[in-house]
Write a structure and sequence with these properties.
Blueprint (H helix, E strand, L loop, with lengths): L8 H24 L4 H24 L7 H7 L4 E3 L10 E7 L2 E7 L5 E7 L9 E6 L9 H4 L19 E3 L12 E4 L9 E2 L11 E3 L11 E3 L6 E5 L5 E4 L11 E9 L8 E8 L4 E8 L5 E5 L9 E4 L12 E9 L4 E8 L6 E2 L4 E3 L12 E3 L10 E10 L5 E5 L10 E3 L5 E5 L8 E3 L3 E4 L4 E3 L12 E10 L9 E3 L9 E7 L2 E7 L7 E6 L6 E9 L4 E6 L2 E2 L3 E2 L13 E3 L2 E2 L5 E2 L4 E9 L5 H14 L2
Parallel strand pairs: 1-2, 5-6
Antiparallel strand pairs: 2-3, 3-4, 4-5, 7-42, 8-9, 9-29, 10-28, 11-23, 11-27, 12-22, 12-26, 13-18, 13-23, 14-15, 14-22, 15-16, 16-17, 18-19, 19-20, 19-21, 23-24, 25-26, 28-42, 29-39, 30-35, 30-42, 31-32, 31-39, 32-33, 33-34, 35-36, 36-37, 36-38, 40-41
Helix pairs in contact: 2-3
C-alpha cells in the first residue's frame, strides 16, 4: 500500500514563495507589457522602424538622409509620420531622428503608446535600445518627439531593456511638474488649432488661446512643427535672412546654377520673394538672384560685367501652382555665352531627379556675369528687401556643371541657431528682424512669438496675493527683445491697473518683476542674463511674505531682491499671457520676440533644487 506523505512547513513556505514570485512577475508582464495582438503589432512596428533607420545608417554611414520618406521606403507597410505628429494606430510610426538618436512611438488600440529609442552615435548595438510603455491615462503625446526624451527614464529601476520590462509611464508617474497649476508645451500644439491645452492641475479652465480669440487673427503665434530635421523659418519681417560674406567662390562668372528646397507660405505671394541672392538693388549691386513671383513662377535675375548696373531677368513660362507638392526643390540654371544667357527652370521632389518647369528663356545679356562685393543671402536681397515667407530646408549655389560653390543647410547650424558652417566652409549668420516674428532655425516644435500673444483667462491661481507665493518657469530660445516687453506674466504697464508680475527683457538681460504700481513706481526686480540664442530655462520665485523676488537663467540664480515695506496685493483682471501683456479688454501690448517651448506655474515657493528639477523636466517635455 502506498502511503502519502504530508508536506513540511518548510516545503509549504517554499511553494508559497515561488507562487508569489510568479504572480508578481505575471502581474508585471500582464499589467505593464500586455501581449494583445495590437500590442505585439505596435511593438513590431516600432522595432521594424528602428531597423529601417539602422539600414540607412549602414548604407549611408550617417542618418542625415533618414527622412520620413526614406524610412517609409525602407519599411513598407508602415505609415511613417513626422516627429511632431502623434501615431494614430499600430501601423503608424511617429519618428524623430535627431543628434544620432532614433526614437519611435506607436499607439496600440487601447490608447497605450509603445516607444522605442536607440542612440546610434556609438554604433549599431541593440544593447542601446530603450523600451517605454506610456499608458493610455498619461497625457504624454504618442509622438517621436516625446519618445526622443525617454532616455533618463529608461535608466531607472533597470527597466527599459526589452518589451517585457519597459519603463512604464502612467498618469501618476511622479515628476517635478506634477504640482504645477499650469503647464503649456509647444510640443502639444497642432497646426491650425487655436487652443493650447493646460496640462497642469487647473485643467481646461486655463487652456491658452493663440492670439486674441479662438479665430485666426494677426496676434497668433506661428506654430512651427519639427519635421524630423531642421529648417529655416522666415516670417517675412524685414531683417530676417541668412547671410554669408562675399567671396571669390560665391562670385560665379559664367555658367550658374541656383537651387533650394522650399515650402512657401503662399505659392502666389502678393509680391516678389527672394530665395537666394547676391544682389542688392538699393546699392545697385547686381550679380544673381532666384525669386518666387506673384504668378507662382520662378525668376532668375542676372547682370553682366559689361553692363553691371543693368538687371535682366528670366521668368519661368510655367507656374509652381502646377506642382502637387507644397514642399519641393526648385532650380534655375544659366548657360552663358558671349552673346546670350539661356535660363532653364526645374522642380524636383527629392533634389536629384529634375523636371523642367516650362520652356527655356533666352536673355540678351552676355558672360561673364557681374561680380559684386554684396553678401550672399538666403531669404532676401542683400539690402533685406523682398523677404521670403515660409520654410527653407537647403539652398545651394553651383556652377552649371554641378560644382558646389556655397551651400546653406540648417543642420549645420550651431545649437544657438546664430551661425552655421557651409559645406564649402563658408560662414552663415542668421539675421533677425528687430521686431515681429524673428527668423528661426527650427530644431524642435516651437511657437514663434513676436507681434503675437498666447493668452489664458484671468484666474486667481495666476495672481500673487499679499500673503501668497508664485513660482514660474519658461522654456524658450531667447533673443534680445524690446525692453519691458513681456515674456510671461499677468501684468500690463499700459493699463490703469498696473499691479502684477512678469518676466520681462531689459537692457541687461531679463528681469522678474513684482509691482503694485507699474514700472515707474516702487517695485522688486531680479535680473539674469540668458545666453543669446540658446535653449534656456528662465524662472522666477515670488514670495509675498518675505517681499522678495528671485530669478534664474538655467541653473544660474540672482540674489533675491525685495522691498522693505509689505506688498499690496498684486491681483488683477488681466489675462495670463506669454509673448505680450493683455488687459481685461483683450488689448495686447509689449510684444516680446522669442521661440516658446514650455511654461509652468506653481502656487508655491519652490526650492532652488525643485526649480532646477522642474526646469530640466520642462525642457525634456518640450522636445
Amino acid at each position: 500500500m502506498h502511503i502519502r506523505r504530508g508536506y513540511t512547513i518548510v516545503e509549504v513556505a517554499i511553494v508559497v514563495f515561488l507562487v508569489s514570485v510568479l504572480s508578481a512577475t505575471s502581474v508585471f508582464i500582464l499589467g505593464s507589457s500586455r501581449t494583445t495582438g495590437s500590442d505585439v503589432l505596435a511593438q513590431a512596428t516600432a522595432d521594424s522602424t528602428v531597423d529601417a533607420a539602422l539600414n540607412i545608417l549602414m548604407q549611408d554611414g550617417s542618418l542625415d538622409l533618414a527622412s520620413t520618406e526614406r524610412l517609409a521606403l525602407e519599411n513598407p507597410g508602415v505609415n511613417v509620420v513626422d516627429a511632431a505628429v502623434s501615431s494614430e494606430g499600430d501601423s503608424y510610426a511617429s519618428v524623430s531622428v535627431r543628434d544620432g538618436v532614433v526614437a519611435v512611438a506607436v499607439r496600440g488600440t487601447d490608447g497605450s503608446c509603445w516607444m522605442l529609442r536607440q542612440d546610434m552615435t556609438g554604433g549599431t548595438s541593440l544593447r542601446s535600445r530603450q523600451y517605454v510603455l506610456v499608458t493610455a491615462a498619461s497625457s504624454r503625446p504618442c509622438s517621436g518627439n516625446a519618445a526622443w526624451t525617454t532616455d533618463a527614464l529608461a535608466l531607472s529601476a533597470k527597466r527599459g531593456k526589452s518589451w517585457s520590462r519597459p519603463v512604464v509611464w502612467g498618469a501618476t508617474t511622479a515628476g517635478a511638474l506634477d504640482s504645477a497649476s499650469v503647464i503649456y508645451r509647444a510640443a502639444s500644439a497642432t497646426s491650425g488649432a487655436q487652443t493650447l491645452k493646460n496640462e497642469g492641475t487647473a485643467g481646461s479652465s486655463l487652456n491658452a488661446v493663440l492670439g486674441s480669440s479662438t479665430s485666426v487673427d494677426s496676434l497668433d503665434p506661428e506654430v512651427l512643427l519639427y519635421e524630423g530635421y531642421p529648417y529655416l523659418y522666415l516670417s517675412g519681417a524685414s531683417g530676417n535672412a541668412v547671410t554669408s560674406p562675399s567671396s571669390a567662390t560665391a562670385n560665379v562668372s559664367s555658367d550658374l546654377q541656383l537651387q533650394a528646397k522650399i515650402e512657401p507660405a503662399d505659392m502666389t505671394p502678393t509680391s516678389s520673394q527672394v530665395i537666394i541672392s547676391k544682389h542688392s538693388p538699393s546699392a545697385s549691386q547686381y550679380s544673381y538672384a532666384l525669386t518666387l513671383e506673384p504668378s507662382g513662377s520662378l525668376s532668375m535675375k542676372l547682370a553682366s560685367a559689361a553692363a553691371p548696373s543693368v538687371e535682366v531677368s528670366a521668368t519661368s513660362t510655367a507656374s509652381l501652382t502646377t506642382q502637387s507638392l507644397a514642399k519641393l526643390w526648385v532650380k534655375a540654371t544659366a548657360a552663358t555665352s558671349s552673346t546670350t544667357n539661356t535660363v532653364s527652370f526645374y522642380t524636383s521632389s527629392e533634389g536629384s531627379q529634375w523636371t523642367k518647369l516650362g520652356a527655356d528663356v533666352v536673355l540678351g545679356s552676355s558672360a561673364p556675369l557681374n561680380q559684386t562685393t554684396t553678401q550672399l543671402v538666403i531669404g532676401a536681397y542683400g539690402d533685406y528687401s523682398a523677404p521670403f515667407i515660409g520654410k527653407i530646408y537647403k539652398a545651394e549655389v553651383r556652377s552649371s556643371s554641378g560644382v558646389l560653390r556655397a551651400a546653406f543647410d540648417p543642420s549645420d547650424c550651431a545649437t544657438t541657431g546664430l551661425t552655421c558652417t557651409g559645406t564649402s566652409n563658408e560662414t552663415w549668420s542668421v539675421q533677425r528682424a528687430t521686431s515681429g516674428k524673428q527668423a528661426a532655425v527650427v530644431t524642435r516644435t516651437t511657437l514663434l512669438m513676436g507681434s503675437s500673444v498666447l493668452a489664458a483667462p484671468s484666474s486667481t491661481l495666476a495672481d500673487l496675493s499679499s500673503t501668497g507665493y508664485l513660482t514660474v518657469i519658461v522654456s524658450l530660445r531667447y533673443y534680445s527683445s524690446t525692453p519691458d516687453s513681456v515674456i510671461a506674466g499677468k501684468f500690463d504697464n499700459a493699463s490703469t491697473n498696473k499691479a502684477g508680475w512678469a518676466l520681462a527683457p531689459t537692457s541687461g538681460g531679463v528681469r522678474a518683476i513684482a509691482s503694485s504700481t507699474g514700472l515707474s513706481g516702487s517695485f522688486a526686480a531680479a535680473t539674469v542674463v540668458p545666453v543669446e540664442g540658446s535653449m534656456s530655462i528662465l524662472a522666477a520665485r515670488y514670495s509675498a511674505p518675505t517681499r522678495t523676488v528671485k530669478a534664474w537663467s538655467d541653473t544660474v540664480s540672482q540674489s533675491a531682491v525685495g522691498l522693505s515695506s509689505p506688498w499690496a496685493g498684486l491681483a488683477n483682471t488681466h489675462y495670463l499671457t506669454l509673448g505680450a501683456s493683455m488687459n481685461s479688454s483683450g488689448s495686447a501690448t509689449a510684444h516680446a520676440s522669442y521661440e516658446f517651448l514650455g511654461f509652468a506655474l506653481f502656487n508655491t515657493s519652490l526650492t532652488d533644487e525643485e526649480i532646477a528639477r522642474a526646469g530640466a523636466e520642462l525642457q525634456r517635455a518640450t522636445s
